[in-house]
Amino acid sequence: MVKKLTALSLAIFMVVVLAACGSNGTTGKNGSTDNANSGAKAESTDSAASEKIVIKYWYAFGDKIEEAKLHMVKGFNESQDKIEVIAEHQGGYDDLHAKVQAAFAAGDAPAVSDLEIASTGVFARSGMLQELTVYAERDKDQLQLEDFNPGLMGNAYVDDKLFGLPFMRSTPILYKNVTMLKDAGLDPEGPKTWDELEQYSRVLKEKGKIGMTVPADIWFYEALVAQSGGQMLSEDGKSAAFNTPEGVAPVEFWKKLSSEGLIKIPVGDEAGATADKDWANQMSAFKFASTAGVTGSLEIAKGNGFELVTAFMPSNVSYGVPTGGCQLVMTSKSTEEEKEAAWEFIKWMTSKENTIYQHKHVGYLPTRLSAVESEELKTHFAENPQFKVAVDQLEYARPRPMENAYPEVTKIVKEAIEKAILDPKTAPQDALNAAAEKANKLLSK
Amino acid sequence: MTVWEKLRPYGMVAPAIIIFSLFFIYPIFYMIYLSMFDWNFVSPTKTFVGLQNFKDLLTEPDFRQVLTNTTIYTVLTVTLTTGIALLLALWLNRKSFFHGFVQGAIFSPHIISLVSISLLWSWLMDPEYGLLNWVIGLAGFGKLEWLSHPSTSLISLVMVAVWKGLGYNALVFIAGLQSIPADIYEAASLDRSKPWTTFTKLILPMLSPTIFFLVIINMIGSFQVFETIAIMTQGGPVNSTNTLVYYIYEYGFRFFKIGYASAAGVILLFIVGILTMIYFKLLSNRVHYR
């Protein structure tokens, strides 16, 4: 039996191998005769094809965001016949970053990539990114660098050198289920402050609902620290600043509200999804979320029959939010030719027309001042005021920290917040002090 | 003897050796080399730091928690999987349509991709909308937080691992049971041995090579758990489900500290190496009945 099987598998193996050799042989022959016969004609098409530069563009996220990105890439490829951009989906930001890094080490990085803004520092300082200053200077009439919203340029520069152009940029905003507020007899204009948010939540709790479901997300925490007038890191970025009273206030606030059952703070990997579901199912009246979700949330509100209004995130001592999202960057190991092609592509993707398009399709910020001023968006804002909030809120926006150790610091801070909220015995101040001590070790290096 | 005849055996094994060296031996040595540097994988400067990475690792409270998590996870997964699988095997070790069906049913998770399983269980364990809490609610108990609270998150992951591993383990046990010669049972029944005595004095000793094999294989597998954690918890909440391999991934590919991650990798290699050595050592001289 065993012998038979071996013989059989050997036979199959040989057939496969022979077949493979055979087919290779024939195509090889055909190929060579073709070349010999068609002569000059084949040569000319060959050279035309090799003139067309092919570059890769890696991007993050699916759904509406992907639709918009692919639509713009298609537009670019059709707009000219010199450059062909191949767009490849790489998952979320973390996956994308890991893959770009690995591909760069292997010498096979994409010419252009999305890059989450807080990671610009690490990528630029390790030499993975091409500095764009020279390109921007050369094409300044066409590029109009000063037309980009200044509130979004903070993460474009690393050590005063330009490394990225704002692409799909966002801020967190407050999404309100106004129908629910009206039913509870609350003023649909609010809540504008933390205190009002607490009052609203109390009323909603009496009606059997909760104020909001909010994951202990580092981005929202950054916002609440800004609203309290604090900073995540010191000015020089060498030490933590989140264990000051301004940094502790948000955790105290969250802990107090969640312990009284006024808001819910889910933790774990599904926390963000839970917050969205609670809001969509009208269990909670508010959610914090990126402006990238405006179009999607409007569809949900329409489908579930409630009215959605967006607003600034409530203030503590002032309004304040971090910006977020991604910019387009160029990797440094490509050839000069590919870099020129990449630059053309980046200019196209960040143009006024395209920033208007992606804003309307997804909800990300229009990155250019001229876009905000345009008739097209003015009409759009008048019809859909939900889109305008994030643009106005940019006045209170600030860049995200870009220190090399920041990604690791965010993990430490997030753990501290979760611990303080989940464990009744842990005081927010103590948890953040311990986190700051760890963070300082990393930042001072 | 011609030169060719001398070289032929080497030529024959060369492909295997080359592939093995390229994909197993070289990476191991490269990892050990990298564990002594401070590097982010791409920057042109690599700084030699000697054993500093190991020193940092062993003094880092988070890493100690990661080791504890991994150990707890391993011990629980291994004892529960082998224990329950043994009981199932004793029950399933007979021929009938029903028993065959049950055996097939519990084996099916083994052939499903771990990624699908993780997604499935994330939904089942959702504290608000999950099926598990709904069932518990029907039975009149309060909600469990499952993956969302440090006190239950690790045990939830153990549950998934046991569910996934049960079928395979039971199958191996059944094979082991069937290889016990029938005449031994006959002798036992002639001596009027009670079922419990038959189990402890006959079945267990005869099964010991199988038990031993499964314990070691499960142990090595559990020490390397990654997929469920990457998909279901990402090490959280509050580091409660962070295990060795996920920790290595996190430092290597999210924080870009490849030297530090390699040092953790060396420690993992060390632990798994010791387990494997114990396995071979014991296998060769202790667990033996024929």
Automatic annotation (TrEMBL), chain A:
Signal sequence, renumbered to the chain: 1-19
One MF term in the entry's GO annotations: maltose binding
Keyword Methyltransferase: no
Keyword Signal attributed: yes
Any one of the GO BP annotations: maltodextrin transmembrane transport
Any one GO cellular component localisation term in the record: ATP-binding cassette (ABC) transporter complex, substrate-binding subunit-containing
Keyword set, alphabetical order: Signal, Transport
Name of one Pfam family that matches: SBP_bac_8
Entry-linked InterPro entries: SBP
Similarity-based family: Belongs to the bacterial solute-binding protein 1 family.
Official protein name in the record: Carbohydrate ABC transporter substrate-binding protein (CUT1 family)
UniProt source species: Paenibacillus prosopidis
UniProtKB/TrEMBL annotation, chain B:
Keyword rRNA-binding: no
Organism ancestry: Bacteria, Bacillati, Bacillota, Bacilli, Bacillales
Locations listed in the record: Cell membrane
Membrane topology according to the record: Multi-pass membrane protein
A Pfam entry, by short name: BPD_transp_1
Domain ABC transmembrane type-1: 67-279
Keywords annotated in UniProt: Cell membrane, Membrane, Transmembrane, Transmembrane helix, Transport
Membrane-spanning parts: 12-33, 72-92, 104-124, 154-177, 198-220, 258-280
Entry superkingdom: Bacteria
Family membership noted in the UniProt record: Belongs to the binding-protein-dependent transport system permease family.
One GO CC annotation: plasma membrane
GO biological process per UniProt: transmembrane transport
Protein name stated in the entry: Carbohydrate ABC transporter membrane protein 1 (CUT1 family)
Organism: Paenibacillus prosopidis
